[in-house]
Design brief:
about 425 residues, alpha/beta, UDP-n-acetylglucosamine1-carboxyvinyl-transferase, Chain, 2 domains, 4-stranded mixed sheet, 14 helices, binds ligand EPZ
Length: about 425
């Protein structure tokens, strides 16, 4: 993956419309699910981001034919050639673990390189493996690879020990071709899972319980090709709504499904932000000084951990002391040291960030440590005095489609240089 340095000139007046792209975290499981189909699948509204390109490349190595351009994926995995996901893939994007379930269910054998940890904390997969074992899979983990084998998975009744988004997605996909009924309990209920179920049903899967934490799947012999449009990306949506709170009551965020970010909108209203929703458009007014808040990150519909860093940036502009408790990952505050370089006043105590505002932020030389941290630094740079440079900005391009272009279109001054 190419690396970039981003330069941002702060305090530009932003005004105009930002259009939200399709959801990265729905596109990834849905691409993996194409392994379950015996004919061509058309996925529309797929964001052109690095993590999706990595997933597409992984599927090509497994045997997929097709192409990905202009946000459309045509893909056909009727022939599985090489049921392997190498470490070059899993090192680049942890979500390649989503291939394990469907590939094992379709092919009877799958060999997937263990996803590395990453900057935001432990990224365990014990729930995924335990669930597949419960369905009769033989699982070996050695030399950095997971080898999974099963003539045919059997329906099982499995309760997740903890809520896991990709764990839920992996086991739902594996169950669609299992022999008999699978009941999955204590499932995650993120909108991306609901969209995956809609997608699987359009391929002929028999699934009930969509939108609840108990999903029942009656296995089939094979699924068929389909055409599906991916839901909008709620984390991108939330990121730009926060940008509007920071830099402009003339910004409209379009292609939104407001209820997907209901927890964020509620917090913004508590802070004193005025929110206007007209169909799929969200716009913001900040009538006066914003008020401090206390926030907990939680599984959906709670406040998403993927917006924690971005909200932290906004809270530096609030008059008073706010706290965010990060309950999902054990090391997701790497953006704090970078924001403090800009003049923020944030202290970390265990899994709690204490943000004292108002801090006047100044441009600085920063380092992007992970995807959502990089977004929080861009937001900080938009309001900082002077120029900000962000190294390792490839992180941003992993999950945001053309953020510099979308922001420049409404008046920002951002340039990205390949390094
Ligand atoms: C998904 O990751 C998202 N990624 C993450 O978004 C998101 O932050 C996360 O869910 C939480 O919402 C994709 O959907 C591709 P988890 P996932 O399994 O599935 C523990 C982004 O920025 N756990 O729900 O990997 C785990 O350690 C990314 O787009 C186990 O202990 O997260 C964590 O503490 C970052 N054992 C917690 O559960 C397991 O087997 C939640 O993890 C699985 C998870």
């Amino acid at each position: 993956m190419d690396n970039y340095k981003i330069r941002i000139a702060g305090r530009k007046r932003l005004s105009g419309t930002i259009i939200v792209s399709g959801a990265k975290n729905a596109s990834l499981p849905e691409l993996a699910a194409t392994i379950l189909a015996d004919s061509e699948v058309l996925l529309k509204g797929v964001p052109n981001v690095e993590d999706v390109n990595t997933m597409f490349n992984a599927l090509e190595r497994i045997g997929a034919t097709g192409n990905f351009d202009h946000n459309k994926v045509n893909i056909n995995l009727s022939n599985i050639k090489e049921p392997v996901v190498s470490e070059t893939i899993s090192k680049t994007s942890r979500s390649s673990i989503l291939i394990l379930g469907p590939l094992l269910a379709r092919n009877g054998y799958a060999r997937v390189s263990l996803p590395g940890g990453c900057a935001i904390g432990d990224r365990k997969i014990d729930f995924h493996l335990e669930g597949l074992k419960r369905m009769g899979a033989e699982i070996n983990v050695e030399d950095g690879y997971i080898s999974a084998r099963s003539k045919r998975l059997k329906g099982a009744d499995y309760t997740f020990p903890g809520v896991s988004v990709t764990g839920t997605e992996n086991l739902i996909m594996a169950s669609t071709l299992a022999d008999g009924e699978t009941i999955l309990r204590n499932c995650a209920v993120e909108p991306e899972i609901t969209d995956l179920i809609t997608f699987l049903e359009s391929m002929g899967a028999d699934i009930t319980g969509q939108g609840t934490d108990t999903i029942r799947i009656s296995g089939k012999d094979i699924l068929s090709g389909t055409s599906h449009t991916v839901i909008p990306d709620r984390i991108e949506m939330g990121t730009y709504v926060i940008a509007a709170c920071l830099r402009g009551d003339n910004i409209v965020v379009k292609n939104c499904i407001p209820e997907y970010i209901g927890s964020l909108l509620k917090i913004l209203e508590l802070m004193g932000v005025e929110i206007t929703i007209i169909k799929d458009e969200i716009s913001i007014k900040v009538p006066g000084r914003l008020k401090p808040v206390e926030v907990n990150t939680d599984p959906y519909p709670g406040f998403p951990t993927d917006l924690q860093a971005q909200l932290t940036t906004l809270l530096t502009q609030v008059d008073g002391v706010s706290h965010i408790r990060e309950n999902i990952f054990n090391n997701r505050f790497k953006h704090v040291i970078e924001l403090n370089k800009m003049g923020a006043n944030i202290a970390i105590n265990g899994n709690i960030a204490e943000i004292k505002g108002i801090s006047g932020l100044k441009g600085a030389y920063l380092n992007a440590t992970d995807l959502r941290a990089s977004a929080s630094l861009v937001l900080g740079a938009l309001i900082a005095e002077g120029e900000t440079y962000i190294d390792n900005a490839y992180q941003l391009f992993r999950g945001y489609e053309d953020m510099p272009g979308k922001l420049n279109k409404i008046g920002a001054d951002i340039s990205a240089m390949k390094v």
